[in-house]
């Protein structure tokens, strides 16, 4: 095929068969390249953990809570209201490689526990991202980039806030007995589900329980949760929050899921009384009194005996004498059937 001096090609000199061959080769190359891109994308998807989110779809907004290990923000993910737990591992170079490995391991452990759970009394897990600089915080002046050592857990947003805050608001007037039973039953059912899944929460407290818009309790914060060990000796150490920790945990002894049952007993007392356990004792005094003197919160005389019995059974010093959480659920359900009033 020849061009004229002005750059045009005469129609009668076009080799149509040659042009068809060229087009076939071009389309075959394009098809092959597209297939390679599809395979590459598929491989990327396979290599990405099933719990990983797309950070570009996440908008992080205002802080709604602060804790020892990070902050919790409101946010939007893929058009939905969410809560975003941000964990900051510090600026690059400020931690040793072994420290970062330990932090990553702990983060993956939390996510591995949470993303498999599905229960109406457990906060719904949406996804997570680990160590990415693609996370952005929305501000009045635009978006603020995050350091690459920040990771996040994204869960459903629960507008009712922490159960502890709700109890503090009702400290003076207390709660109606039917509300006490409803809150306790929600928490008991959530813990019963976790234990059926062989998960020990290890930090059961009202601060780690959230409320949705209908006042349903949902268990949150699986930062120290773990799969229950076959050998109790594999689970030791002071893990949890003082005031809610079982004697065996405070004492550094081996423990199992029954440590959650003890903590539930303290939460049940707190829900009924709308008060804090041991408000006048120091950390060391609580530890000593709970372990050595069998100290427990004082149950008010007005508390129905059946409810007081649940508390006492749950916080028994002997873990083997504490009920399983499914039995606790049955005991609290019985209270609703009997219609006891405070």
TrEMBL record:
Mind telling me which PROSITE patterns this protein's record contains?
PROTEIN_KINASE_DOM, PROTEIN_KINASE_ST
Instruction: Please classify the protein's predominant subcellular localization into one broad category.
Output: cytoplasm
Q: Where in the cell is it found?
A: Cytoplasm, Cytosol
**GO MF term (any one):** ATP binding
- Listed name of the protein: non-specific serine/threonine protein kinase
Question: Can you give the residue ranges of the Protein kinase domain?
Answer: 58-335
Q: Which residues form a coiled coil?
A: none
Query: Which Pfam families does the UniProt record give?
Result: PK_Tyr_Ser-Thr
Supply the alphabetized keyword list: ATP-binding, Cytoplasm, Kinase, Nucleotide-binding, Phosphoprotein, Serine/threonine-protein kinase, Transferase, Tyrosine-protein kinase
GO BP of this protein = cellular response to carbon dioxide; regulation of stomatal opening; response to blue light; response to red light; temperature homeostasis
**One cellular-component annotation, GO:** plasma membrane
Q: Does the keyword Ribosomal protein apply?
A: no
E.C. number: 2.7.11.1
Taxonomic lineage is: Eukaryota, Viridiplantae, Streptophyta, Embryophyta, Tracheophyta
Catalytic activity, as annotated: L-seryl-[protein] + ATP = O-phospho-L-seryl-[protein] + ADP + H(+); L-threonyl-[protein] + ATP = O-phospho-L-threonyl-[protein] + ADP + H(+)
